[in-house]
Amino acid sequence: MKFIDSGDTAWVLASAALVLLMTPGVAFFYGGMVRAKSVLNMMMMSFGAMATIGVVWVLWGYSEAFGQSWHGLVGNPFQHFGLSNLLSGNNAIFGFVPAAGGAAAHGGIPALAFVAFQAVFAIITVALISGAIADRAKFSTWMVFTVVWATLVYFPVANWVFAFNGYAADKGGWIANNLKAIDFAGGTAVHINAGAAALALALVLGKRIGFGKDDMRPHNLTLVMLGAALLWFGWFGFNAGSALGANNTASVTWVNTMAATAAACLGWLATERVRDGHATSLGAASGIVAGLVAITPACSAVTPLGAVAIGLLAGGVCALAVGLKFRFGYDDSLDVVGVHLVGGIVGTLSIGFFASASAPAAVDGLFYGGGVDQLWRQAVAAGAVLLYSFTMAGLIGLALHKTMGFRIDRDAEVAGIDLEEHAETSYDLGSLGGGGLTHAGAALFGSHPTASAPSPAKSNTQGASA
Amino acid sequence: MRLVTAIIKPFKLDEVKEALEAFGITGMTVSEASGYGRQRGHSEVYRGAEYTVDFVPKVRVEVVVDDVDSAAVVTVILKAAQTGRIGDGKIWTVPIEDVARVRTGEHGPDAL
After folding, report:
1. Does the residue B14 lie in any domain?
2. pTM score
3. Are the beta carbons of B51 and A283 separated by less than 8 Å?
């Protein structure tokens, strides 16, 4: 018996909108963390990903992720190209959580509701990478990278992890169906994936001028806090929406998402207080994101107490992990590796320890008497996604670096990427006009004379005469 | 006439302003500045990384005074701004040729 459940459909559509809001959330989160001269470029990398992936998803992205899978590795990109063959209501999609069982007993959601929900996952995964290459990446090359990386890495990996057999297609991906690792909402496909790609790009582009020497503190922590708040809000759609129904699984994952995130905020702040002497607002915001990342794969598999434990662990571990870049000398500018890669690994592996059969995924981890069976499945899934994404992102990044160039020139980087790449400045606080200090700074370095910018007065005249 | 320039710790601004007013100085120009002297900068730990902060935030107070008041004004600022710890700042004076009040066109000491 197949029918469309209106309650489930309403929840999934609302969740999709919540998750879309996370990408502007990332833009604010990252935008506040960079220096004042590169805010707009930082935010534009997220908005750029919304633009490119929103189109690519409709063309071949959905089909490549959820079309009939070729050996569990990649969906057929031509099966649903353009999505035109999915518009009738007969393509209902049923129950997502395999271990929960019983999902087929009730109705499903329209295929296009699933298309919408998964689209915003693809967008945010790509946007997350941008934090590693702040202040220095050519915008045009970034836009090309988003399309190539999504096509060669995200869509196949989403097929591995999210495509269950008989769900959107008869045959799904190998991690979901053969390995049977638990990744409810994307600890591997989203966070390890983005974090590993971020590490590769940070290595390809090299360090910012002054890395490790200059004080590169966040220019506006209120924006960072706003971004963290939007992310937390949207993440309820990300995790609870992944139940693909307005049901018990959604409720459990909602509570776990709140509990782990709160605990991770505490864990990060406590670590900072002990190590550096201060509990910072950047630490609170980062702790929130670390907790959200870690609970993402695990939210269907653990109890709320397990979620608190995972959150505390993720907050503490990630707070320490963000220092690694100074030790090893890679400029992961906004800690995508320290938060998303490390947090994703913590969350994915912790399922092997903290999973409880009383949760919807119905699997026991090591601490609940389940042995190491689930743990090794989790480790294989995490390792496979990490290695594939790191290698591919490195190759794509290098290829683009050798052809288009991935980095702006030195003078432009010192003067500020906003002016170089977008001909704008984020803050015009000077009462004398003309963009204030940022323009003056740029003129000083001589890389971008303001005189060459088209003057608004001129274009107005043209407009009037046309 | 002389221009007295004082570089002081930002939190000392109010005390210096009040002391100058009490002395009878009727106007001053204040701006934010940053720099270092013999104390150099200092290092700070943020997000697990240690940074050297070369330029320490300061406030610059500028007052134009009659030649006879110059030494006394320096003493007034000195007393008000002093904490005895490193980084208290500097005061210097330079001779100036002329001062004009924009509103009335007066020149010299009358314009002070």
Report:
1. yes
2. 0.87
3. no
